[in-house]
Amino acid sequence: MSATSRNLTRRLALVATAATASLVLAACGGGSDSGSAGSGNGSASSSSSNAAAAHNAQDVSFAQGMIPHHQQAVQMAGLAADRASSAQVKDLAARIEKAQDPEINTMTDWLKFWGKDVPSSDSSMGSMGSMGSMPGMSQSDGSSMPGMMSSSHLTELKTMSGKEFDTMFLTMMVEHHKGAVEMASEEKGKGEYGPATSMADGIIATQNAEISEMNKMLGKG
Fold first, then answer.
1. Buried/exposed code over 72-91 (b: 16+ C-beta within 10 A; e: otherwise)
2. What is the spatial distance between Cα 4 and Cα 10, in angstroms, rounded to a whole number?
3. Which end of the chain is more exposed for a tag (fewer CB within 10 A), N or C?
4. Following DSSP, what letter does each residue of 185-205 receive, concatenated?
């Protein structure tokens, strides 16, 4: 065999060896990627399970109580656009709706994820009479959630307009906010689910500030 033929043979052998090595590396790389993807899916499933487990009865009670509480506040705030005479009252009502509507949706999602009952929108219509069917709530003691207005109070508010509405709305909403702060404080102290205790922090800060604002409008601040 000539020197040229021997050199050509060696070059072909080197090329074949390199190609084989590339295929082996690619196969190894593909196996590694598949393993990573599998690990990622396992971590996601684990995270979901942990999120579902990382809550307690207080978190469930907070969401099931605060949903109708917020719904009633949004219902009251919705009356202000057509009935209030004060631009300040209208602005406050709009802010209440904007803040609490998304929180209702968030808490609804929590309860669904946890496999717990979600209160119906009718639960916001008054005190214990409409709340008795909710899990964890009893009619026997005749009590109601803190700050919740009775259906008769809501009916009375709907009949008002102008300055009379402004005064009644602010007076009722101050008490309603105080109730929400009380419920949120309990969640902050006893809850386990991080997003719920964080929401409770936000409710306490926002609604305490709005209580001060409303008291000033009422001439009490």
1. bbbbbbebbeebbebeebbe
2. 10
3. N
4. HHHHHH---HHHHHHHHHHHH
Q: Token match 């609490």: residue? A: 100
- What is the percent of the chain where pLDDT is above 90? 63
- pLDDT for 75 equals 96
> Which residues, 6 or more positions from 213, have their beta carbon under 8 angstroms from its beta carbon?
92, 221
- Which parts of the chain have pLDDT scores under 50? 2-5, 7-9, 12, 14-40, 42, 44, 46-47, 127-143
Q: Token match 């907070």: residue?
A: 62
d(CA 171, CA 165): 10
Both tokens assigned to 187: 């969640």
pLDDT, tens digit, 9 for 90 and up, residues 69-114: 999 999 999 999 999 999 999 999 999 999 999 999 999 999 999 9
Extended strands (E) in 60-185 = none
Q: How far apart are the first and last CA of the chain?
A: 107
pTM: 0.70
CA 48 to chain centre: 16
Residues 176 and 148: beta-carbon distance below 8 Å: yes
